[in-house]
Predict the structure.
Amino acid sequence: FDNGISKIEGFNAGQYPLHHFFRAHTNGERKLFRYPLNITFCGFDEWIRGCYRKRTNSELFAIEFIRKGGMTFIQDGKKYIVEKNQLFIVRPGADNEVFMEKYDYCLKVTSCISGPLLEPLLISLGIEKVDYIPISAPLQLEQTM
């Protein structure tokens, strides 16, 4: 898939990845919200070995919180094995890949956020270039997400 901004490539493994998402729009309808921050979609995502995604010049900002298993995440050439209770961030403008290397299964909670205040917010928090975050209170974060 190439929309002129981002290029997305990858492989599915049977029916996986399974997306259990709540969306800000229905399928086929892409309403653009004009709020300072928008949750574009959020929910649970299930992956198994054989799934693969590569995103060039990501147009997304997404918080990906691992709840079971783990996955490999590469962003702008830096490689991470992200495991239970750890979080990775898909950054706008970055090139990234996700796949199963060490684990056979991964369950993650995903939130995709957009809007004109996203970049200033990330900069003010000092996380505009952050890829990976270990979490000290995983149950609190899971409830929030």
Notes: The longest strand covers residues 62-75. Residues 118-125 form the longest helix (8 residues).
